[in-house]
Specification:
By secondary structure, the chain is of the alpha+beta class. The chain is 58% helix and 15% strand.
Length: 189
């Protein structure tokens, strides 16, 4: 197999700027999406009158941080599921505000890497929605955690597009800075 494409998402400033710009309209879409879901599930409690605005804000920030940790743990679980003998590393790039899970040097099929990449968005969105549905969490707390979490998945969504364009039979290698696509063709489809 030949190396046919490398993506260095954590080092490519131009790509990071493009993803940040794309995050703006995505924020609006997800804000509307999660607001509609919240109202459909349980209209009413926009804020909790028994809780100060400052306390509500603090709780929302703590929930968001917890879900970023859960997000990366889910990546790690799926890395291990598909390559049990490979090492998984976790970390934070403070200057870029990015948390990550990686299994450097591990190669996965397109299907496996797609699952690894998208499952934190799917699981966390469902988990946040279930928490909202079955607790006294307010609409604003739900929307103000679910929306930024979904928007923070923009790198994962970008990877899905890259993986979808990889040729049939390609292997996707996880690297500490992004992905490398290996295949028999010179270029992805």
């Amino acid at each position: 197999m030949k190396k046919i494409k490398e993506i260095h998402i954590t080092e490519d400033q131009s790509l990071l700027k493009k993803l940040n710009i794309a995050a703006i309209p995505l924020s609006i879409v997800f804000f509307l999406f999660f607001t509609v879901i919240a109202i459909a599930i349980r209209p009413g409690l926009i804020y909790d009158p028994d809780q100060s605005i400052m306390m509500s804000f603090f709780i929302t920030i703590l929930i968001f941080i917890a879900f970023i940790i859960i997000h990366e743990a889910i990546h790690g679980i799926f890395f291990k599921l598909f390559a049990p003998n490979r090492k998984v590393k976790f970390g934070i790039i403070w200057q870029k505000g990015m948390a990550y899970a990686t299994s450097p040097g591990s190669k996965y099929t397109r299907w496996q890497m797609s699952i690894i990449v998208i499952m934190p968005f799917v699981i966390n969105s469902l988990l946040l929605t279930a928490i909202y549905a079955f607790t006294r969490q307010t609409i604003s707390q739900y929307v103000l955690v679910a929306t930024p979490h979904a928007v923070a998945c923009i790198g994962d969504f970008f990877y899905i597009l890259i993986i979808a364009r990889a040729p049939q039979g390609a292997m996707i290698e996880d690297t500490e800075t992004g992905l490398t696509i290996w295949g028999n063709k010179n270029r992805p489809n």
